[in-house]
């Protein structure tokens, strides 16, 4: 246990530490200092009078314990005062035992000194003092502070807290956003979606496929004016800022406020690159923060030139054009490197709103935007004043955007698109920018499309005017015309070569004038009857007994009175404006009055819209237009709504290259490709496959088959009686003659003899893959086949027995110039060469003396076969020369007859002939090669025996060497259980 001396020593040391602050000590006279003096006195008293130690042992320094144990302190006080008289005043001001001492305390009896209790009380009093000292300091009245200083203190604290909160929020927001930011190193390998180009056989571009029409162009190939125009218009401080331009944002805000609209954006080029490559186009604050962060990173990672390269190749410039190269082709029909300053400034004005400032849609707005760009270039010292004025004075030649897909060879390019997607996927064709080289010949394609349209138009005209859309009474013509006028844009003004609804208001038929007066809205016009005899009522001649002939239409001038009537409504095409005659003006006086009334009404409305300043000028213009309208009328042509369709496909025999393909009448109206997608019955065009199978089964060209009635029962006990075209039978018929004259009954008997399964197997060897039903009706071409398969089978004959797959695509080159696919002419021998040639020879006879004699107009060796299905639903002709094999189909998409008199020879063959004439023009005449193993001999046409001409007529026939006829050859065949020999009531059914 610590002694009293040790405790007093501790207190003294504590006092010595504060001795350096003597001036403060003298002023305050703290309780601690006073008590320490008391300790000194006690210590000194004990040293001088050891006997007094016992009395001091019971003396405590603090009143807290004395209050609990009252003591008589008078002797102690007297001793203190006796030994230290100077402490009297001190003791008076500061009681020895603190505020708790009172008079009563001093009167308490003296207790004997207890050293242990004194030491204990000493520590307790020390703690009590410290506690009361803190309370005393708190209770001391602090000096008052001014309101201003208090306000500043709180304001500073509030600002500090706000800044700390904002900084914390921004830090947390950055960490949150940064967690999901894309990596900018993806921009290092720039491989954006680019155009897939399609080329013809001579390398001419014929099509494009893309979702974003983009052509990547090096920055070094771009003209400086183009680069500077975009920088001046979009980000003038591009080369100074760090991806984000606060000065530019403020400047754009001020300019937009002055203009009252958005004339300048605040986003930098780097930010636009960020948005285009790495972010979605959504307009949110979170996306803008991401954009700013990424723009800063991109600016620190990439050079300004690299950023410009990305921007100018990625930016959208309207009409599906991405990047300056594609836009230059779109608007000016030239590469970007050849653009002038005026053209560069026009392109640089597009990014803000490509649709709004499109030179196609809004040339005036595009012009205003161009002027803005030129002024910005002048302000940034990219051009001089003279250069700006010169560029402003240039009238730009804005070319309509070429639709590569639909304007050149749409059927072909669509087939290519489907093929690539099916084999390689959509990403390959829409994003990878591959180059596809095809076998199509552009000139052949144009000839084919024209031939198909001409042939179908001829069919339309042969079957005449199909009748009006409707007929309205004379009282309803005005009301009907007003409705039509309201539906015509531009105030009812007609456009050349546009089709409108018109109504007949007069028929002018006499020896001088022969025309129909029509009214389209408020415009009157005429249709010359002499230009449309096909639209008049027809008188058909039906006395033609030939297998594939048709009637000739005869027309009467007066028949127009029954074909067309006043009030008939139909479609007319506006051809041109012509000056009207006095006679027609008199007959059309009522219509002219109505036109004048409407023109005056238009004049009033125009003046209201134009304002007072332009009223006189507009009035003069309207009067001039009214005067011109009174002297001019429109010449119209009657337009039908044709429904008949056609298709054509032409294959180069030796290589298999498809040189032309037409899938229908109008690609814009229907994209269904009838050359490859439609499965129609080939009719008699299927017979060459059967006859080739017969030759390989032992038949010869002079084999005799009896053309006589025959009947069969099907599974449901229905009787099928095949018949020829005119329900006639011709008795003994040679094989060649049966094919040339397209004898149905003979063909059925051949199939019955060689077997249906054998015919189907033979068709498969020739490239027919479509399903074929196993019945005798295949002899009449009842199976459904795409035209391309039928033409492929015919190429085996022209190739002397070799099958070559049709080739549409010759080569596909990938984005990095690697060969993705390349076609080679793969020939496979599927039938004997002699069989193939004999079939060609037989089909040459079809052209020379059979159902395809019109093909002789080609003037060179040709072979082929017509085909007409039951009820004339389909008409075909497949023919070939040594170079090209071409097939044509004509029919309706719906199950409908082409009409009386139509056939393969009448409907399809003229289209084939027109195409082949154009395709072979200027090419040398070639003959079909005769292979080894084929010999020619004279035979008697009646018996098929070899003959030297001594006994009767002889003809030359070709044979395989080992099949020369030495006697009459009549193949035996098993008749049905119930043969029918009657010649009446013969029909074809269930075909």
Write the topology of this structure.
Blueprint: H1 4-17, H2 22-28, H3 31-48, H4 53-57, H5 63-68, H6 74-83, H7 87-93, H8 103-106, H9 115-139, H10 147-179, E1 196-199, E2 205-209, E3 213-214, H11 224-234, H12 246-259, H13 269-278, H14 285-301, H15 304-314, E4 321-322, H16 324-332, H17 341-348, H18 363-379, H19 385-392, H20 404-407, H21 410-424, H22 426-430, E5 435-438, H23 442-462, E6 470-471, H24 477-487, H25 489-492, E7 499-509, E8 514-520, E9 523-528, H26 560-563, E10 568-579, H27 582-587, H28 589-610, H29 615-631, E11 632-639, E12 645-652, E13 658-662, E14 679-680, H30 687-695, E15 704-707, E16 712-713, E17 719-720, E18 731-734, H31 735-740, H32 744-754, H33 756-765, E19 785-786, H34 787-798, E20 802-804, E21 809-813, E22 819-822, E23 827-829, H35 833-849, E24 863-868, E25 874-880, E26 884-891, H36 904-920, E27 934-939, E28 955-960
Helix pairs in contact: 1-3, 11-17, 11-18, 13-14, 13-15, 17-18, 18-19, 23-36, 28-29, 30-32, 30-35
Task: Please describe what this structure looks like.
The chain is α+β, with helices and mostly antiparallel strands. It is 43% helix and 14% strand. It is built from 36 helices and 28 strands. The chain has a five-stranded mixed β-sheet. A five-stranded mixed barrel has the order 7-8-9-11-10. A five-stranded antiparallel β-sheet has the order 13-12-26-25-24, sandwiched between helices. A hairpin with a 5-residue loop joins strand 24 (863-868) and strand 25. It is elongated and about 150 Å long.
């Amino acid at each position: 246990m610590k002694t009293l001396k040790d405790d007093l020593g501790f207190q003294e040391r504590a006092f010595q530490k504060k001795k350096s602050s003597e001036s403060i000590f003298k002023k305050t006279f703290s309780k601690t200092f006073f008590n320490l003096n008391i300790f000194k006195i006690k210590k000194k008293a004990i040293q001088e009078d050891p006997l007094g130690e016992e009395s001091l042992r019971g003396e405590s320094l603090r009143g807290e314990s004395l209050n609990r144990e009252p003591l008589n302190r008078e002797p102690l006080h007297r001793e203190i005062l006796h030994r230290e008289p100077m402490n009297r005043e001190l003791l008076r001001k500061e009681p020895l035992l603190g505020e708790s001492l009172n008079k009563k305390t001093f009167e308490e009896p003296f207790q004997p000194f207890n050293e242990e209790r004194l030491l204990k009380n000493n520590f307790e009093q020390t703690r009590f003092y410290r506690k009361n000292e803190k309370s005393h300091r708190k209770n001391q009245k602090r000096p008052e502070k001014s309101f201003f200083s208090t306000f500043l203190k709180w304001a500073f604290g509030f600002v500090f807290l706000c800044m700390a909160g904002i900084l914390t929020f921004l830090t947390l927001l950055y960490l949150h956003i940064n967690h999901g930011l894309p990596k900018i190193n993806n921009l290092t390998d720039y491989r954006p979606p680019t155009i897939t180009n399609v080329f013809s056989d001579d390398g001419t571009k014929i099509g494009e496929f893309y979702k974003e029409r983009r052509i990547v162009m090096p920055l070094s190939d771009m003209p400086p004016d183009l680069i500077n125009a975009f920088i001046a218009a979009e980000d003038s401080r591009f080369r100074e800022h760090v991806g984000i331009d606060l000065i530019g944002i403020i400047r754009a805000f001020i300019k937009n406020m002055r203009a009252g609209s958005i004339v300048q954006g605040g986003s930098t080029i780097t930010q636009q690159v960020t948005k285009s490559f790495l972010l979605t186009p959504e307009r949110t604050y979170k996306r803008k923060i991401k954009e700013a962060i990424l723009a800063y990173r991109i600016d620190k990672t990439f050079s300004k030139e690299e950023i410009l390269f990305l921007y100018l190749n990625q930016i959208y410039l309207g009409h599906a054009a991405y990047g300056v190269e594609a836009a230059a082709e779109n608007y000016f029909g030239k590469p970007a490197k050849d653009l002038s300053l005026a053209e560069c400034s026009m392109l640089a004005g597009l990014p803000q709103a490509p649709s709004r400032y499109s030179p196609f849609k809004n040339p005036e707005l595009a012009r205003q935007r161009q002027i803005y760009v030129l002024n910005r270039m002048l302000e940034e010292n990219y051009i001089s004043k003279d250069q700006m004025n010169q560029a402003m004075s240039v009238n730009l030649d804005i070319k309509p955007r070429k639709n590569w897909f639909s304007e050149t060879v749409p059927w072909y390019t669509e087939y290519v698109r489907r093929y690539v997607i099916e084999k390689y996927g959509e990403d390959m064709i829409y994003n990878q920018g591959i180059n596809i080289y095809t076998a199509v010949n552009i000139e052949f394609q144009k000839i084919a499309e024209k031939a198909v349209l001409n042939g179908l138009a001829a069919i339309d005209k042969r079957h005449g005017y199909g009748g009006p859309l409707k007929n309205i009474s004379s009282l309803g013509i005005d009301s009907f015309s007003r409705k039509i006028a309201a539906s015509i844009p531009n105030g009812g003004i007609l456009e050349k070569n546009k089709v409108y609804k018109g109504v007949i208001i007069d028929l002018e038929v006499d020896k001088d004038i022969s025309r129909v007066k029509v009214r389209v809205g408020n415009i009157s016009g005429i249709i010359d009857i002499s230009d449309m005899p096909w639209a008049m009522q027809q008188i058909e001649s039906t006395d033609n007994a030939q297998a594939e002939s048709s009637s000739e239409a005869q027309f009467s001038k007066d028949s127009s009175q029954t074909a067309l009537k006043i009030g008939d409504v139909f479609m007319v095409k506006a051809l041109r404006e012509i000056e009207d005659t006095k006679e027609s003006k008199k007959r059309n006086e009522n219509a002219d009055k109505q036109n004048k009334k409407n023109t005056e009404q238009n004049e009033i409305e125009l003046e209201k819209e134009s304002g007072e300043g332009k009223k006189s000028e507009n009035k003069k213009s309207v009067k001039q237009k009214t005067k011109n309208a009174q002297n001019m009328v429109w010449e119209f042509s009657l337009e039908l709504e044709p429904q008949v369709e056609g298709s054509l496909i032409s294959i180069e025999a030796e290589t298999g290259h498809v040189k032309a393909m037409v899938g229908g009448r109008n690609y814009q109206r229907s994209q269904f490709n009838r050359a490859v997608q439609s499965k129609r019955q080939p009719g008699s065009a299927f017979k060459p496959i059967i006859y080739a199978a017969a030759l390989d089964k032992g038949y010869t060209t002079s084999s005799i088959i009896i053309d006589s009635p025959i009947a069969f029962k099907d599974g449901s006990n229905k009787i099928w009686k095949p018949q020829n075209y005119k329900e006639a039978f011709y008795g003994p018929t040679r094989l060649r003659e049966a094919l040339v004259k397209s004898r149905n009954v003979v063909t059925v008997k051949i199939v019955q003899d060689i077997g249906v399964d054998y015919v189907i197997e033979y068709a498969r060897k020739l490239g027919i893959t479509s399903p074929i039903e196993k019945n005798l009706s295949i002899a009449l071409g009842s199976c459904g086949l795409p035209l391309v398969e039928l033409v492929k089978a015919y190429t085996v004959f022209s190739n002397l027995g070799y099958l070559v797959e049709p080739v549409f695509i010759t080569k596909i080159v990938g984005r990095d110039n690697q060969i993705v696919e390349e076609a080679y002419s793969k020939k496979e021998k599927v039938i004997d060469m002699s069989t193939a040639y004999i079939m060609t020879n037989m089909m040459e006879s079809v052209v020379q003396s059979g159902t395809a004699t019109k093909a002789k107009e080609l003037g060179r060796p040709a072979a082929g076969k017509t085909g007409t299905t039951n009820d004339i639903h389909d008409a075909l002709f497949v023919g070939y020369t040594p170079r090209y094999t071409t097939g044509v189909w004509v029919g309706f998409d719906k199950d409908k007859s082409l009409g009386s008199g139509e056939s393969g020879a009448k409907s399809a063959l003229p289209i084939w002939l027109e195409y082949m004439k154009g395709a072979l023009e200027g090419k040398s005449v070639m003959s079909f090669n005769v292979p080894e193993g084929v010999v020619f001999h004279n035979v008697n046409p009646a018996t098929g025996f070899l003959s030297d001409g001594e006994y009767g007529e002889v003809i030359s026939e070709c044979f395989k060497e080992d099949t020369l006829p030495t006697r009459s050859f009549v193949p035996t065949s098993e008749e049905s259980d119930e043969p029918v020999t009657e010649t009446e009531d013969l029909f074809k059914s269930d075909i």
